[in-house]
Design goal:
The protein is of the alpha/beta class and 222 residues long. It contains 4 helices and 8 strands. The chain has 2 domains: 61 residues; 136 residues, Rossmann fold (3-Layer(aba) Sandwich), CATH 3.40.50.
Length: 222
């Protein structure tokens, strides 16, 4: 009887070990399956999020110039030391960094108009120095704005000038904006931004005259 008991002990231990190993294998398989399912779910969510972000960027890119000016304006205000609502600001046309500083194009003038609007939205004083002291009545319309300096007030109380430069890039235009004291020439604030070529190319001249190209080529030399 003692021999039988002694022989049964190793057999029970063997069966116990085998059962434990078998159950353990089943649990590991279940855990691996659960892990695979979790990874697949996470992969699906990741792909969904990536596609969603891609769609968002695509929607942003087809926006207008004003969308990008708003972002630049946010940085400009954030970088400004103690902006005051009593500041009298004149907004000028943006010019190309590698060109003549007394010429611009439709984009440069539109940036000026957009920044004028954004400055006013932030509660700052904006002076429109292109507004004359009279209204010109003509058969085609009634006008107050002018680009003839002889028709404009030379004594505008402008304290700061808002303007900047542009640089053509193969994928769009880099915009460098800054606000400068007209007396001390001190830069009060500055900001930079980028406007995609697809957005710039949505602007069209009303006159239809050649001379201003808003197209960007991949092999264009800087």
């Amino acid at each position: 009887m003692k021999l039988i008991k002694l022989a049964a002990i190793p057999l029970m231990c063997f069966l116990s070990t085998s059962c434990s190993s078998w159950f353990s294998s089943d649990e590991q398989v279940q855990e691996m399956q659960a892990t695979d399912s979790s990874e697949q779910a996470m992969g699906s969510v990741s792909r969904f999020n990536n596609q969603r972000m891609s769609d968002i960027y695509k929607r942003v890119e087809v926006g207008d110039v004003n969308h990008y000016v708003q972002g630049i304006m946010q940085d400009l205000i954030a970088n400004m030391d103690n902006p005051e609502s009593t500041m009298d600001i004149g907004v000028t046309s943006f010019v190309y960094l590698d060109g003549s500083f007394d010429e611009t194009d439709l984009l440069g003038n539109q940036l000026s108009e957009s920044f004028m609007h954004e400055l006013h939205q932030f509660g700052l004083n904006v002076l429109d120095f292109k507004s004359s002291d009279f209204i010109r009545v003509t058969p085609t319309g009634d006008f107050n704005f002018s680009r003839d300096y002889e028709e404009l007030n030379p004594d505008m109380p402008v304290q700061y000038v808002m303007g900047g430069t542009m640089v053509k890039h193969q994928d769009g235009v880099i915009v460098n904006a800054r606000m400068v004291s007209i007396n001390t020439k001190k830069v009060l604030s500055s900001a930079q931004g980028f406007i995609p070529a697809s957005v710039v190319n949505t602007l069209h001249r009303s006159q239809g005259k050649p001379g201003i190209s808003l197209k960007f080529k991949q092999n264009e030399e800087s």
